[in-house]
Amino acid sequence: MNQNFEVQELLIAIAVRQQNPSILTADFLKYTGIVPSDWELARPPVITNTAAQVVYQNGVSIIAEVNRVIFAEAIAAKAASEVQIPAIARQYIQTVKQVSYQGVGINLRGLAPYEQKSLGARKYTVSKLLQPGAWQDFGSAPVEASMRLVYTLDEAQLYLEINEAQLQYPDQTTKPAVLFSANFNHAITQAESTASLTAIGAVIDQWQSDVEIFKELVNNKFLDAQSYSIHEATSEAEQLIIGAI
After folding, report:
1. Which of 61, 127, 133, 168 is the most exposed place for a label (fewest CB within 10 A)?
2. Do residues 123 and 18 make contact, with C-beta atoms less than 8 angstroms apart?
3. Could you name the domain of life of the organism this protein comes from (predicted)?
């Protein structure tokens, strides 16, 4: 059983009924204490009528849209105690209370680079997950495939997408990989504002549980060490090229 798959990115998306995205500015985030005052911007913030984005040098980004606010962070080399955005997302909803929060999703992405062995140049999704057939033999190049699966869990709906990808390294070499993307959709049934905020906060606090479920699913149900040698993605890869969406 292969246990090398790790989650590389955490994204917390909080749905709102409607908001003005221009509220999201670097000054607002700093002076309200949503982010630490010593955080430095990676580039100038982007603010339009429909979206705003603030990106920090530590890799944390915050995006506001009309119907949601998104907190994203690369977590591959971090211990759980070092991950920043759960606390930031919680502080945000406790500070910005004038909007109606509708729900929350915990989104995770992880890469499984591999060395092809017995399956030659054939793709993981086509060779391992789909039934072989004549549908594969069409066109002038090998068929590419992506998959979207839906799992019903006790406390969430899990949407899992599987795509072929290529990791491109600084020396321009590439390595094939499988990209697993998970969306844990946690329904918020509380209509009253305070109860809704409490429920959303509870989901955010349990983000590590979603990470472990995601890792268990991918490692135990999808990655077969007898067919592929899977290796954890490293920070050497500068660019991810998704082959099929």
Report:
1. 133
2. no
3. Bacteria
